Amino acid sequence: MAQLRGMMVCVTGASGFIGSWIVKYLLDKGYTVRGAVRDPEDLHKVEHLKNLKGANQRLELVKADLLDNSLVAATAGCQVVIHTACRCPEANFRITNPQTELIEPSVKGTLNVLKASFSSGVSTVVMTSSVGAMYLDPTRPLEQTVDESCWSDVEYLVQIKEWYCLAKTLAEKSAWEFAAAQGNGIKLIVINPGVVMGPVLQAKLNASSTHILKYLTGCVKSYANRCQAYVDVRDVALAHVAAFEDPKAFGRYFLAERSIHRARLVEMLAELYPQLPVPKICSDTKNPEAVPHKICNAKARQLLESELINIGKCLFDSVESFKEKGFL
Ligand SMILES: NC(=O)c1ccc[n+]([C@@H]2O[C@H](COP(=O)([O-])OP(=O)(O)OC[C@H]3O[C@@H](n4cnc5c(N)ncnc54)[C@H](OP(=O)(O)O)[C@@H]3O)[C@@H](O)[C@H]2O)c1
């Protein structure tokens, strides 16, 4: 592993929630990091990166947008590219044109990263996909375990207007097709996290952190009759690093500690913070409580060489960091 340490790793979406933790761990491990961000001068978005230990010596921030030709320069001289950048709208954000707002940027952006990486001679690309590219298939029985072999059904995603999951599914499929067409020219590894929570490093709150914060401020009075798989951002970031460090790593990695109904999530929050206005009622009073998918995270545990962080601890650390950063 020691010979890897001097090499340069490019991280797209470096200023984002997951990207920031990846940059932190890369710097901690002694790598030289090129953080690709849309505006390196925007201190609100990048100051936390500049303040990371080792950043003065080994972090370079470069301007890059997924949809222009800046990626070739961003990836030049790098052995590894970690591609996390993607538009991640909040759940209540109204999408008027899914094709131009989400699908094209996600698919084209991913292909642009891969093409630039290939032309720059990058050996490994680690891409952040999502559980959204795995679990939404109406033909899969609920008792069947969700793991790396599962793909969301594209027609179903269109039918239920799950535009973000559609964008992630199509982008991941395009990435695998591109990598296969290059033969052994480039190694692709994909990380598919569930909903990512945990302490925030950045100053601008991201969509999945807002998912937790909204249950703490009194702004929502009920929770949805839904189940989701959850994972801590520190596990997600470490998995991206392990994915290129471990020569045995291959294919997709499903990162989730467990899948639970929203009721269990708010119960955990209420137990941890009884003084906060956590909702106690479900918005759906007609239907039975939704049942969570069975999940298998064995491949992720093998990659991380540990158990995943417990969701209770993850929630506590999330909320403590919201308080520390003044979000709560
Ligand atoms: N958080 C989750 O629950 C979760 C779960 C599964 C998968 N993921 C995936 O994980 C990745 C990171 O998500 P996150 O939670 O860290 O979100 P985030 O905090 O919103 O970070 C996304 C980053 O992508 C950048 N970006 C967006 N569009 C771009 C473009 N056209 N060109 C260059 N950069 C662009 C954003 O830059 P700006 O700040 O300039 O907009 C931001 O830095 C995404 O691929 C997401 O789909 C996230």
Describe what is shown at a glance.
This protein is of the alpha/beta class and 328 residues long. The chain is 39% helix and 16% strand. The mean pLDDT is 96.
Characterize the structure shown:
With 328 residues, the protein is α/β, with parallel strands linked by helices. The chain has one domain (2-197, 232-258, 294-305): NAD(P)-binding Rossmann-like Domain (Rossmann fold, 3-Layer(aba) Sandwich), CATH 3.40.50.720. Helix content is 39%, strand content 16%. It is built from 12 helices and 12 strands. It has helices spanning 17-28, 43-50, 55-58, 71-75, 98-119, 154-159, 163-181, 207-213, 233-245, 262-272, 298-304, 311-325; strands spanning 8-12, 32-37, 59-63, 80-83, 124-128, 187-193, 195-197, 222-223, 227-232, 251-255, 258-261, 281-282. A 7-stranded parallel beta sheet has the order 3-2-1-4-5-6-10, with helices on both faces. A 3-stranded mixed beta sheet has the order 7-9-11. Strands 8-12 form a two-stranded parallel sheet. Strand 4, helix 5 and strand 5 form a beta-alpha-beta unit. Helix 5 (98-119) packs parallel to helix 7. The mean pLDDT is 96. It binds NADP nicotinamide-adenine-dinucleotide phosphate (NAP). NADP nicotinamide-adenine-dinucleotide phosphate binds at residues 13, 15-19, 38, 45, 65-67, 84-88, 105, 109, 128, 130, 168, 193, 195-196, 206, 208. This is NAD-dependent epimerase/dehydratase domain-containing protein. Keywords: Oxidoreductase. Residues 9-249 form the NAD-dependent epimerase/dehydratase domain.
